[in-house]
Amino acid sequence: MSSGDFETYFNRRATRFAAFYSSEPVARALGRGPLFDRLRLAVDITVTLGASRVLDVGCGSGPLFAPLAAQGIHVTGIDPAEAMVVKAREEAASFPGLVEVELRGWQQVTEVDVYDVAIALGVFDYVGEPATLLAQMGRAAANVIASFPSPGIRLNLRKIRYGARGVQVHGYVLDRFARLAADSGLEVAAVLPLGRAGHVVHFRRSALTR
Ligand SMILES: C[S@@+](CC[C@H](N)C(=O)[O-])C[C@H]1O[C@@H](n2cnc3c(N)ncnc32)[C@H](O)[C@@H]1O
């Protein structure tokens, strides 16, 4: 897959994807409850860590902005899809001085230790080089929080749907996180299940790289 397919897919579907967040009960009825669960888990871990600066990689329409800004946490959201950035900037406007949004992809993350936590929700699903992304996030922040879909029937259906539009979707088994962390100079701090949908994983710099 070229990352261009991933970027253009969400550029064209920004409105539809953002709408998943408009009603939690409706999202849950449609089987999309894990979207809300992963937000809450990411916010809980970030607050527990006492973070003050967060990098939100693939921020989409910015569903993390409000809960993080409500805790006084500064957020930099990045996304390469222009239509998503438009929505994210609308959301960011409610939190002046606390949330900023930049049009760029994870490949353009060059910051080192600028943030306390780097978060990527719903991004590793579509990335063919997960260790490269994880390592880049681990340089930007000592703590990384990310969601990973599990293999299974639901993921296979997504593979068919997205595959028809040139976007590959990747599943991650539980056993893979430790290896992925080690390949990225990180270690696994916690693995939190999202039901059958997947996991939210908290990585931190390993003792060797701290
Ligand atoms: C499934 S959406 C998730 C959005 C948001 N994190 C959320 O939880 O609602 C995936 C997002 O990744 C973005 N994306 C695509 N290519 C990317 C890249 N190279 N770097 C960072 N984000 C990317 C898409 O534009 C899209 O907004």
Quaternary state of the chains: single chain
Number of domains: 1
**Helix content percent band:** 40-55%
Neighbour order of strands in the largest sheet: 3-2-1-4-5-7-6
Mean pLDDT rating:
94
What bound compounds does this protein have?
S-adenosylmethionine
Strand content: 15-25%
Shape: globular
What summary fits the major beta sheet? 7 strands, mixed
- Give unreliable regions as ranges: none
CATH architecture: 3-Layer(aba) Sandwich
Derived structural class: alpha/beta
What name is given to the CATH topology? Rossmann fold
CATH class call: Alpha Beta
The CATH homologous superfamily = Vaccinia Virus protein VP39
Number of helices: 9
Total number of strands: 7
Name the helix and strand elements from N-terminus to C-terminus, one letter apiece: HHHHEHEHEEHEHHEE
Describe what you observe in this structure:
- The chain is α/β, with parallel strands linked by helices.
- The chain has a single domain (3-205), classed as Rossmann fold (3-Layer(aba) Sandwich), CATH 3.40.50.
- 40% of the residues lie in helices and 22% in strands.
- The chain is built from nine helices and seven strands; from the N terminus they run H-H-H-H-E-H-E-H-E-E-H-E-H-H-E-E.
- The chain has helices at 3-12, 14-19, 24-29, 33-48, 65-69, 82-92, 130-140, 153-163, 176-183, and strands spanning 53-57, 74-79, 99-103, 115-120, 141-149, 186-193, 198-205.
- Strand 2, helix 6 (82-92) and strand 3 form a beta-alpha-beta unit.
- 42% of the residues are buried.
- The structure holds S-adenosylmethionine.
- The site of S-adenosylmethionine has 20 residues, from helix 1.
